[in-house]
Amino acid sequence: MHFHLKTYTALGPHILKTDSIHLEFDGRKILQDIYIDCRQGEVVGLLGRNGCGKSSLLRIIFGSLKPSYKYISINDMPIAKGYHNGRVAYLPQHGYLPLNVKLKNLAEPIIDPQFWNDFSNHPIYQKYQDQKAAQLSGGELRQLETLMCIYSRADFILLDEPFTHVSPVQTELFKQIIRRCAKVKGIIVTDHQYYNILDVADKIVLITNGATKPIASPDDLIAHGYVSHLREV
Ligand SMILES: Nc1ncnc2c1ncn2[C@@H]1O[C@H](COP(=O)(O)OP(=O)(O)OP(=O)(O)O)[C@@H](O)[C@H]1O
Q1: Ligand 1 atom at shortest distance from the alpha carbon of 26
Q2: Which of 47, 133, 209, 229 is most open to solvent, judged by the fewest CB atoms within 10 Å of its CB?
Q3: Nearest atom, ligand 1, residue 59 CA
């Protein structure tokens, strides 16, 4: 079915900015010099080695982790917690849906109405809409949770490892859906499958030693020691 995506307000695309975040655990500095901006209409790919603080950063933006200092804004208005007013949605590394509620009762309030047809026609939702999350396999549930997050009503979508536990054909589908939703949303996505991140993102930010480094070309990933060589795709 063909339909029009909603247009931006008079302000144009909204911009999420993240600046000056300080996060320590047990006196160990994790994040200290972080700058990321993401506007509606773009996909930002976030890369970094294990334990560098990617999930922590997404949780800080979402509001479920409190650092010692942060500045996060939308259109230069500071926001205390991204999940307030539903501005920001977050796909955590591990499940987020309650296990004992019928999936269709969970989906309707979460999904952006302009994407309802796309979402509800997806085979995994067609198959399991009358079931509860507890009745799905780990991979099936991950697929559904990822779709529900990407298609959610929020203006900004944070995706933590959406490609990691799904089959390659699903990854290809998710990348297409991310690109489609990014026409009207701002999306920040992190995954260790960096070649998929390079493929789907408009710009790349690398976290190394607690700081963000803009990546102008994939070769910069080698220069910063993130990969030793680039994978052929
Ligand atoms: N609740 C916590 N208490 C203490 N240390 C923590 C806590 N949560 C995370 N850390 C530490 O903070 C660092 C960053 O963790 P985080 O999960 O953000 O990294 P990541 O980049 O997402 O890693 P990965 O790619 O392995 O998922 C790690 O060294 C981790 O051990």
Answers
A1: 4
A2: 229
A3: 18
| Shortest-distance Cα residue to atom 10 of ligand 1 | 25
3 state SS for 54-116: HHHHHHHHHCCCCCCEEEEEECCEECCCCCHHHCEEEECCCCCCCCCCEHHHHHHHHECHHHH
Is the domain spanning 15-223 CATH 3.40.50.300? The answer is yes
Q: What is the pLDDT of residues 190-214, one digit of tens each?
A: 999 999 999 999 999 999 999 999 8
Q: What are phi and psi of 214, to 5 degrees?
A: -70, 140
Q: What number is the ipTM of this complex?
A: 0.97
**Amino acid letter for position 230:** L
Q: What distances in angstroms separate CA 156 from CA 17, 104, 148, 230, one per listed residue?
A: 11, 23, 13, 29
Residue type, 197: I
In Å, the largest CA–CA distance within the chain is: 54
Q: Is this model's pTM higher than 0.90 or not?
A: yes
* Domain boundaries along the sequence of the chain: 15-223
- The two tokens of residue 108 are 């309707």
